[in-house]
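Two quick folds needed for the group meeting slides. Do the first one here.
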Amino acid sequence: MRRLPIGGAIAIVVISLAACSSPSPSAVDAQALQLDADYWQIDQIEKKFHESTTAKDIDEMMDLWAPDATLTVGSGETAVGIDEIRRFWLEKSTAFMPKTHWISDHPAYKLEITVNGDRGTLHFECHYVDYAKKTVVYTTSADIDVARIDGRWLITNMVGATTELKP
């Protein structure tokens, strides 16, 4: 009589274990996929940043920023919020001035991205090349905080700095 309950219990354990070993993605796989997607989306910020300065496309540039973002440049001048940041790019940034004809080059091997949940960081360099003169005319770097806001990665804080050309 005891054989039936013990055999039944063993059958239940075996069926349960078999159900757990199905080929569906694990939570670890899903997390790895999400992390890869996050890295890719943050990398797109860097690409669109350089694309927008090269094309002088202010709308593309502003699409990268959170509404309450901050931008600090030079000797500590800080623009707060979308309107001030837009004004900085249009009125103070040499890259957006009509007289400059620059291509914003970015050495990919100097790109650094971190992700921690819905927050991350992005570091890159910009090498502005005057395409008529075929020379590097300006170099800068950016340390950026990013956040996932309403499903999109956006810049929340950027600090620009000078940099040296080196490998």
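Then this one, please, same format:
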Amino acid sequence: MWETLREYFEKYPSQEKIVKLMLKYGLHVREGSIYCGDVQIADSAIARAAGVDRRVVAATIETIMKEKNLKEVFSSLTPTPKLKDAAHAMGWTALEIIPTDARQTGILARVSAIIADAGVSIRQAIVDDPYLTDEPHMLIVTESQIPPTLLPVIKSVPGVKNLVLI
């Protein structure tokens, strides 16, 4: 995805920061503003979060609105809550998987199969895009504890470098 979008922003590193922030949080553009769901986010708040001047936010929105492909992408994004930090309070397990190479296919499928075969229900699975994140991880939140005997089995999946129970 990022390779497709990069061409529009590679000459504007400050706008690139805004766009990466929008992708990270599922923020979208509507009516000349940035929204998280139906909540409008002030340009100054976006600018602070990205570490840029607020005028860069307006320029980024303008760039997005004038390019059909960008407008289509950035008007369609939606936020997704990560349950990782709430998992413990809910009695769930959060397992972070650090890949050797996040572009390798099948990691999520193999890990999910191992967990499902053990009769553990997966509540959420989120994989970072390796083109948007410097250190992409996979997050799996389960409705019950993952049996400790499964951890070495999961770690042996091709492409899994390390596991972190959260």
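Slide caption for protein two: The domain at 2-74 is CATH 1.10.10 (Arc Repressor Mutant, subunit A).
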